[in-house]
Amino acid sequence: MTTPPPVLVVDFGAQYAQLIARRVREAHVYSEIVPHSMPVAEMLAKRPAAIILSGGPSSVYEDGAPQVDPALFGAGVPVFGICYGFQAMAVALQGEVSHTGLREFGGTQLSVTGEGGVLLRDLPEEQSVWMSHGDSVTAAPAGFTVTAGSPGAPVAAFEDLDRRLAGVQFHPEVAHTVHGQHILKRFLYDVAGIEPTWTSNNIIDEQVEAIRARVGNKRVLCALSGGVDSAVAAALVHKAVGDQLTCVFVDHGLLRAGEAEQVEKDYVAATGITLKVVDASRRFLDALAGVTDPEQKRKIVGREFIRVFEQAARELEAEDHVEFLVQGTLYPDVVESGGGTGTANIKSHHNVGGLPDDLKFQLVEPLRTLFKDEVRQIGAALGLPEEMVMRHPFPGPGLSIRIIGAINEERLAILRAADLIAREELTAAGLDRSVWQFPVVLLADVRSVGVQGDGRTYGHPIVLRPVSSDDAMTADWSRLPHELIAKISTRITNEVREINRVVVDVTSKPPGTIEWE
Ligand code: XMP
User: Fold this and answer.
1) Residue 222 annotated in active site
2) How far is the CA of 395 from the centre of ligand 1 (A)?
3) What is the DSSP letter of 7?
4) 389, 415, 433 — which closes off a domain?
5) Annotated catalytic residue 247
6) Domain assignment of residue 465, given as a range
7) Angle subtended at Cα 112 by Cα 109 and Cα 115, rounded to the nearest 5 degrees
8) Nearest CA to ligand 1 atom 20
């Protein structure tokens, strides 16, 4: 795929690299993550527009702490060191890093020295930054100007404009550093001289061109799940090759209220895509009948999905040969699987890696270089329905793992009704974006006593599980306003006859997971 010269974010292994790479993209500059073990020659072969050294272990003097090859700084490529990267840069260029005993963790006051150089010019003399270090740079390397300090870091920012090298002890990528994004942009635009051209429209143009070149006049197939990734991937491919693309939507009957219609009507209306809908809900429900074990449910949904999709693919193949299969693989999947090579990276049931040998497709993965936020922006730029583009993550096995107990049509209807109320009220409160995901879970095998009108009830509890998270690896329970919870609770118990109790899950992850099953 054609992408602009990247800003390489060198990953020192402390989970900051992805965040930095995202912030660079938010500044409309293309970035890629590379491991610190990559030799400098290999980094330079990528013709980087700049290199950013990320945070990492607490001390450059730790046993086995990764070092930076000084050759990196003599190649004429602009380099920005952050936290550990800043110290590693200082050491490599013969500055001084010491155990001062002045550790700093968390919000810290930064004091700008003099004019603040290019990075800190015109910003407040005192500003709050996020620190996380034990050692400190005590003397900047020759040729560098020190532009800021903090109580625990005598040298907290430096730059050498002649060599286009700069660094900061704090973390500009985290939101707690008030002017962090500004400082990062100063490096990218003013120190490194990069133009901010990485925009949705440019990404779309580049991808469309690349897809056309790859696909030619061959036929392409894509499975839509109702989720953002497959919807955007298919829309991009459709923009590139039009009716050479056929989408298949397997309705497994486990989606939430309105979601199947969104795919079948709104999405098709917005894109003009040729869609083959397979209503397989009966088949999935039959296969799931009586099953209560969560992993068993997952296996069954995955297996049935592949069987149904395979059948649909064969029917299309019988009409005319299909060469390519679209997958909505995102950049974090590529990074986490070690860079990947374009072979199927099977993560959820919507991927179709289990297809038999006579149905082998070449993969088209137009989102491989993109983060989720970028995928959403591209979806919006392509005119996809807002509800689809902004949708919270939703698991492949759908509502089957949000009913604790066996699945049947009646239970699904109860859960759908309650879930719809929760979603409506969250949206009405304007809180969709501050919540990562809001599972609503039906405890179908539990009953409790209640009273409604004049009568005793014996209904099911429903669990509200709103969580905040960055990547679903860890999560915290969302502190939703009490009035909102009250409204959801009242509406659910009034409007969904079978529910007589609403509870809120206040467990973080770990120890809880986001889903109950
Ligand atoms: P947990 O429950 O493990 O979920 O904290 C982490 C994230 O993954 C989603 N999830 C799934 N997604 N198939 C999927 O496609 C699954 O079987 C599955 N299980 C959990 C969950 O919604 C959350 O975003």
Assistant:
1) no
2) 5
3) E
4) 389
5) no
6) 402-504
7) 165
8) 395
DSSP character at residue 136: E
Asked if residues 153 and 145 have their Cβ atoms less than 8 Å apart, the reply is no
Write the DSSP symbol of residue 66. P
pLDDT digits (tens, 9 = 90+) for 237-274: 999 999 999 999 999 999 999 999 999 999 999 999 99
Among 390, 401, 414, CA closest to 465: 401
Q: Are residues 208 and 357 in the same domain?
A: yes
Give residue 463's Cα distance to chain centre. Answer: 26
- The number of distinct structural domains making up the chain is 3
- What global pTM score does this model have? 0.89
Report pLDDT for 339: 58
Among 171, 179, 238, 349, the active-site one is: 171
Give the model's confidence band at 62: pLDDT under 50 very low, under 70 low, under 90 confident, else very high: confident
pLDDT digit string (tens) for 181-208?
999 999 999 999 999 999 999 999 999 9
Pairing of strands 165-168, 153-160: antiparallel
CATH number at residue 206: 3.40.50.620
Mutate to test the pocket of ligand 1, among 300, 303, 477, 515 (most ligand atoms within 8 A of CB): 515
Q: How far is residue 138's CA from residue 141's CA, in Å, rounded to a whole number?
A: 10
| Span of 58-62, 108-112, 164-168, 385-389 with lowest mean pLDDT | 58-62
The 3-state DSSP class for residue 395 equals coil
Q: Which of 32, 36, 83, 349 is catalytic?
A: 83
pLDDT, tens digit, 9 for 90 and up, residues 131-165: 999 999 999 999 999 999 999 999 999 999 999 99
CB-based contact 303:355 (threshold 8 Å): no
Q: How many CB atoms lie within 10 A of CB 42?
A: 10
Please give the helix or strand (H or E) that residue 220 lies within, else none.
strand 219-224
* CA 191 distance to own-chain centroid: 29
Of 166, 191, 216, the last residue of a domain is: 191
CA 216 / ligand 1 centre spacing (Å): 36
Burial of 286 (0-12, 13-18, 19+ CB in 10 A): exposed
Q: Write out residues with Cβ below 6 Å of ligand 1.
A: 298, 348, 393, 395-397, 437, 472, 509, 513-515
Q: How confident is the model at residue 354 (pLDDT cuts 50, 70, 90)?
A: low
Q: Are residues 146 and 236 in the same domain?
A: no
CA of 248 to the centre of ligand 1 (A): 23
In a domain, 167, yes or no: yes
